[in-house]
Amino acid sequence: MASSTVANLFRAAAILTSGPSGISDTRPADLKGILLRRLTEYNASLGKSVNIEETSLEGLQSYTGLEALSLLEQIHRSLGVSSFTVSSAQVGASPPSGAENPEPDRTIVGSRDLALIRTLLSIIFKWSVEPLLQRIVAGIPSTSTSHDIGPASIIDLTGLPLEYSALSSVSQRLVDLTLPDGPGGHISQSAVTATLLNKQLPDLLVPCVVIGWLPKSLSSETMPTVDKIRPSVMHLLSRLPASHVISAAGIALSRPSSLLPYVRRTCTFLLSRQLLRPEGIRGLCESIFGEEDASGDDVELDKLEHVSHLLSTVPAGMDAQGYLNTIVPRIVVLLGIDERSLPAAHRRALAFSLSRMLTDEGNAQMKRITVDIVFPMLHDPILHGTGDISPVVSLKTIQVLLTNTDPSPYLISVLLTPIVPSLYALYACLEEAKASDPVLRETVKGFLATWGRLINSEEVIKTIRKIIEGEGGDWRVDVAGEFSLLEKNAVEDGVPLSLFTPQSLKEAEEAGEFDVDANILGLKPDPVRLVRFVKTLHRADVSSDLFVQLLEAYRSSRSQVDAAPMRTLLCLQLVVQMQKQFSDDDTSGVLKKPEHILSFIKHALENPQASEHPSSNKSASSVGLRMEDLRIVEVEDDPEYSEGDSDDEDGEGDEDHGLDDMTSTAVKLLLSVLEANPTLSARTAPVLNDIFELLEPMSKSREEDIRALAREARMVMTARLASTSDSARRPTQEKSSGGGETPQEIYQKALKLLQDPLLPVRAHGLMLLRQLVASRKDASGTLSEPPLDRALVPGILSIFMQSIQDDDSYMFLNAVQGLSAMVDGFGRDVLRNLVSVYTQGLDGLSSSSMSQHDVDTRTRVGEALGQVIRRCGEALPSYASLLVPPLFQVVRAAHFPTVLRTSAISLLAQCVKTNELATVQYTLDLTGAMVDLLQVETVPATQRQTTVRPDSESEHQDETKSQEPTARTIDALPTSANTKFPPLRRAALHLLSLMAQACMNRVYSEGNSGVEDLLLPPILLRRAKTTLVYVAATDADDVVRVMARETIENLDQMAEAIIGL
């Protein structure tokens, strides 16, 4: 009985939506007649007697919608599916096997029945809900200046209460379909409810918000706020997946009804509540990046910024601290999960959003709170071995954050600088351990290299000094490769000394412990490894300043009575290793800033003279004894050796040798500085005068080595001072008075960064080049050419053209922006080169063998041209002769890949959209060409299987049918010249539509004057319309048909505008 009842209901629904199956061909031509016939037959099938002959079309539509709702309610009840708890993973899932169903219905709902349900729902919202909602929204007063619901019309306020009551009734009935037990109950699992929630949730949400959240100030006795619907809606949204609700709320915000302030606030509030759910952030990403997840395409910047804006917006009525305490930790946790558990688009969006929060200068409060939350979560596991996440997860999260955001030295600084000492200690531990993870070791090494190359020299040196002071802690790697931070009391104080046995001696020789650079005493950090790390940074400014500071630390340690011997030895080993390693390939690397080194040399030369004073003999003796103690570490306090032996007779000689050694080192360093800086003299560095005087007594020293060195240094300084003339001094002064790096130095610095294997460093180099070629505003506010030698422009252009071919999106997007900036800075010459690259191969020789790499390169150049066109604005007509003819030739080149021809049409459309006067002299040619293209390349639906097949498929006739659809798309065959791909026709229709709109706008704004060149001849207009009508009716592509109809409407509106004149 239940099955027959449901079948009768579906039969009635079929009559209501499309009439009985066996109807005659003589149908009424108007919609009203069709509805009358259907409603008459529908009422007859149900045994109803309703007089609807005199009802208007709007009334018939409303009546149809109400009957559709009644049918849905009966179908919903007749199916008799009991309610059960809905999982958050999906809407409309099948009931679980254990769900209670006292009266199960065996009726099977097929695909036709589901289609009828969808049709009934569409009728309800289109003919019943939307008209009522439009009139009610128009009748509610709004404070928004943009409140404009459709064309101006007279609103009948007398019938508004009845319409409001009708909308409330329909909305409540629809909500009752989903929650038959009311608020707090389970969601119904019928096919009606599943279809409603899956397909029509935004349409249901909007009227519920309008009537359920109507402010008391706007409500009245005739239009009261429907308070009872709010709990049901809130409960329903809380039981649905967050991604589904977020999509619905976003669509609701784009509807005209959202122009009401309270509707917009309510939808925003609902969206914020969904974000605060445990799965809210994932739901947001799923709702926004659904297409990218399915296709694997790159994420658009607009979507990344949209996600960032949503996540960083604090909901109304909630404090920023509470909101960020909920959202930010969840973002950090999501960034640290396995790559297979989080799509790449989601990971990039979350990293982009978090980086914006950490670097947002416009919102200091949010930046401060985010920093206070993120940094302890990421730093504590590495600094202290504690926290909510493990050190491995922390490192992985930092890696994801850095590789999925814009290269920002500030972000790298605040994120890595506090933990660099610990990272270096971990890296040293991983290098020494045989069971360490090589991937993790390279990751940590990459962090240190990126940090060291992008951060300013002062911060790098300060942090390296912390490493030398042992602030990184001690790590341990077990046999399984797991690492952990050791507690301070668990760290051994030093390496125990013991005598070698024959076996241990052999093992030490095989392990290289007797190598000259071996760290026999277990110094931390290992001098060889640390200096090697500094050398890999390729920072001459860092190495030179660090070298000076190490020399000063060594000198200071020698002069202190209670200095730790191991500390002094570490400084000495670091100095020796820097001299040794940096002298291999770059002698002047550590000597790039001579002023600091000269200051150290002066102090070093002054101290030996002070030590020879009688009043300081005791201090000097103490210093000498401490260095002597250093030479007998671990046995210095042993009373057994307090009296000395026969080898201690040269104690005073060792003391003098220590002082002479420091003096000799200082003089040799002075000679090296003078050799590395040919222009250095007392004129540019006055401190050399003091050093020259200090060298005079040393030139008479009893020590032959010191005497020879001092004389050589004085001779070099004298010759250097004498050879310095005014002509040689003037350019040096001009360079030093510039107060910063010259464009040539920035250019060389950028080239060096571009050769780095690390992606963030290369991107930073491109950013420097982009800033170098960007136009600048002078004092008057006008744009001027960059202060760069034009001889460097071809080289920079070549760099950008090579970078635009990079597979990584960070690189080619920066290159695209750089090309656009070059056009702004240097104008026509660069633009001409870009157009030449884009249109190369019009002769048909090179394009016949064009690869996908070539197509990608040209489309990216086209993206740069698009940015240039948008930036030109009103000045675009002056560049039209450089842009339009070549682009039109690409469109006409039949041998070109269809992707490039589509791109060229899109660029022409961008020209029309930016400034229609740029294409005024090409209007007839462009219009005729687009009409011809549509007329020739249209694909009727009946020929789809034969005409859309590319030429390349002729060799693969034995492929399965399941593989054919993917081979026919333009994305699968980007190099194909097949002109039957739909995107080509879509681009042509878009261009025609924009040209019609431009002409219409020009007519309305200027009248007859200035539009003669934009008008189309009647013959061409008729031919265009005829072609478009045919395309709209027969083309196989749905989008092409829709766009053709829109273009026809634009042509009709243009004709009406012209006739109106």
- Largest sheet, strands/sense/barrel: 2 strands, antiparallel
Give, in spatial order, the strands making up the sheet with the most strands: 1-2
Total DSSP E strands: 4
Distance between the first and last residues' Cα: 68 Å
* Separate helix tally: 45
Shape: elongated
Share of residues in helices: 55-70%
How much is the radius of gyration in Å?
A: 40 Å
Mean pLDDT comes to: 76
Strand content: under 5%
- Unreliably modeled segments: 22-26, 81-106, 143-154, 491-495, 609-658, 725-738, 946-967
User: What is the subunit arrangement here?
Assistant: single chain
Structural class: mainly alpha
Keywords:
two-stranded antiparallel sheet, elongated, about 65% helix, 4 strands, about 1050 residues
What does this structure look like?
The protein is an all-alpha fold and 1061 residues long. Helix content is 63%, strand content 1%. The protein has 45 helices and four strands. The strands form two sheets. The protein has a two-stranded antiparallel sheet with strand order 1-2. A two-stranded antiparallel ribbon has the order 3-4. Helix 9 (242-253) runs antiparallel to helix 10. The longest helix is centred in the first third of the chain and has 29 residues, at 111-139. The chain starts with a helix and ends with a helix. Mean pLDDT is 76; it is low at 22-26, 81-106, 143-154, 491-495, 609-658, 725-738 and 946-967.
